[in-house]
Each structure stands twice: as structure tokens, then as C-alpha cells.
Amino acid sequence: MRTSRLHELRETLRVYLAEERSLRTAAELLHVARNTVTYRVERAEELLPTTTTAGSSLELRAALEIAWAASANATPGSGY
Fold this sequence. Notes:
With 80 residues, the protein is an all-alpha fold. The protein has helices at 3-18, 23-30, 34-47, 58-73.
């Protein structure tokens, strides 16, 4: 899977969870259709060892925030 595609999935899942699983709010913040958020969340969950609905998502949210911060601080051309 392309790095840009993984970045989209991570970012969508990060916003979705931060907005307390609101598809509408996540779509508005990401400037995409609600169905796009639904598709991306489902695709991200297929790639995860656990679902976002199983128990607490605190560890997953923390990992997504770290990945987001790392990508924001990555140097151009670093491949992230």
C-alpha cells in the first residue's frame, strides 16, 4: 500500500476517534464526504489487529497522534 494512502487512513482514523466516532464531524474537518470517512475507517480497521470499537481506544489514539506529529515534523523527501 502506498505511503500516501496509509497517511490518509491514519489521519481519517485519528480525526474520527478524536471526534468521538462522529462520521459527520470527521468528514467536515477532513473536507471529504461522510461515505469516504466510513470507507477509510473500515479499511483502517481491516489493517489493525483489533477494531476501534473493542474496549478503550486510548492506545490506538495515542499511536495515531504520535504518527501525526512525526509526519508533521518529517523533513521533505523523508519518505513518510
